[in-house]
Design brief:
The chain has 389 residues and is α+β, with helices and mostly antiparallel strands. The chain folds into two domains: 204 residues, Rossmann fold (3-Layer(aba) Sandwich); 146 residues, Glutathione S-transferase Yfyf (Class Pi), Chain A, domain 2. The strands form three sheets. It has a seven-stranded mixed sheet with strand order 8-12-13-3-14-15-16, with helices on both faces. A six-stranded antiparallel sheet has the order 2-1-4-5-6-7, with helices on one face. The protein has a three-stranded antiparallel sheet with strand order 9-10-11. A hairpin with a 2-residue loop joins strand 14 and strand 15. Helix 4 crosses helix 6. The radius of gyration is 23 Å and the shape is globular. The protein starts with a strand and ends in a 15-residue tail after the last strand.
């Protein structure tokens, strides 16, 4: 989990230092105060980018040429002996620098493995209401963290798919070359399907159990996986059956790139039949079930970034989600407008850290007196770790 955090020039957060972060960290304040920007900063440490849509330049504070986030992570099972510094810097020109344990790294995948994240925000509704791409991304995210062979296989599949589509777009086909890429694509696609199916079969029962905890009255929920081609065929047979359509239209119609997950309620699409609040609970169930599975496979918890949980949920269901988060033993960064919305939602004995955010300033409230302690002061935890240009 993250024990310390420094934020420099992320949106309206000019300079924020947070020491001794807790398992549960609540950031409250008016809309536009900078709460979500704190979550974005943590996301930068795990993904080297924001979870919001838009160009990188919108992430960087106006008048600055870059933004930087520093963090210190610790293995809660072994304590300070496993403390690792991590830093990410992005510039207006689009450059990104990443350092982990004092060493520059080139692969975002290495950063992702070090600090796995789960995001619950307004965009998470895309899991139900959006295009299949959002659900494939959710599926791949889970498989990536539980199956070490998946990422290399996914890269191989993407390369084969790109080359095959390039050949299909040409007016004159080299059939021998096309058959080679088709053969390799079929092998790689079958492996990806096997990894996904194995993961899905572990996820689906956890999702049902999680939904029984979050919304006992919401019955009949089912999670279904579609592999992206006719289920009666293997991938090689499906490619052979679609070769004429692929040639006519210049791209591969069938395969793992067309896979999808569907959530149904009593046999009907959850996106079409459930209320907004019920949809949010289902999305929470998906993310919590995925985080639970990832933690069991990795032997370490995810970090949850939860933006405005009380929106669309009543106090009772907010409490149920907080109970579930607490049960995962995960570190949580969560936002709300009023402190009272979330302060007392946690199980007895689990005291959250409270931070008031106002106009880009983050102030921690002391436990006993709720005395504000400015979150812009304190030692630079990684001075010189990544010199600014």
């Amino acid at each position: 989990m993250l024990t310390q955090l420094q934020i420099h020039h992320v949106r309206n957060l000019q300079q924020v230092t947070l020491q001794d972060l807790s398992r549960i960290n609540i950031f409250f304040g008016a809309n536009g105060s900078g709460k979500t920007s704190v979550l974005e900063s943590v996301h930068m440490l795990g993904m080297a980018r924001s979870f919001r849509q838009g160009a990188t330049r919108t992430l960087i504070q106006h008048g600055q040429r870059d933004c930087t986030v520093y963090g210190m992570t610790a293995d809660t099972g072994t304590g300070s002996a496993s403390r690792v510094p991590v830093a990410v810097q992005r510039t207006l020109t689009g450059e990104v620098q990443i350092k982990l344990g004092g060493q520059t790294i080139r692969s975002v995948a290495e950063l992702v493995e070090h600090l796995p994240l789960q995001v619950l925000n307004a965009a998470s509704f895309e899991l139900l209401t959006g295009a299949p791409a959002a659900r494939r991304q959710f599926l791949n995210w889970g498989v990536f963290h539980v199956e070490q062979r998946f990422f290399a296989e996914w890269q191989r599949f993407q390369r084969c798919l790109k080359q095959r589509n390039k050949l299909l777009r040409h007016g004159k086909l080299d059939h021998s070359e096309l058959s080679v890429w088709t053969r390799d694509l079929a092998k790689s696609g079958e492996r990806i399907h096997e990894f996904r199916l194995q993961y899905f079969e572990a996820l689906a029962p956890r999702f049902r159990t999680m939904m029984e905890q979050l919304s006992p009255s919401l019955g009949g929920l089912e999670l279904r996986y579609r592999k992206g081609w006719d289920r009666s065929l293997n991938f090689s047979e499906a490619l052979a059956a679609s070769v004429q359509a692929d040639t006519d239209q210049g791209y591969t119609h069938t395969g793992p790139q067309r896979a999808d997950i569907k959530v149904t309620a009593s046999g009907h699409s959850a996106a079409e039949t459930l209320s907004r609040g019920q949809q949010k609970l289902v999305v929470c169930g998906l993310k919590l079930a995925q985080g639970q599975l990832m933690s069991q496979k990795r032997q370490g918890s995810c970090v949850y970034l939860v933006d405005d949980l009380p929106a669309e949920l009543d106090a009772r269901h907010c409490g149920l989600v907080c109970d579930a988060l607490a049960g995962l033993q995960a570190q949580v960064f969560i936002t709300c407008v009023a402190k009272a919305d979330l302060e007392h939602m946690w199980p007895a004995g689990l005291k959250p850290a409270l931070f008031h955010v106002e106009r880009g300033a983050v102030v921690e409230l002391r436990e006993s007196e709720e005395t504000p302690v400015p979150g812009q002061e304190g030692p630079d935890l990684v001075t010189g770790f990544m010199p600014l240009p």
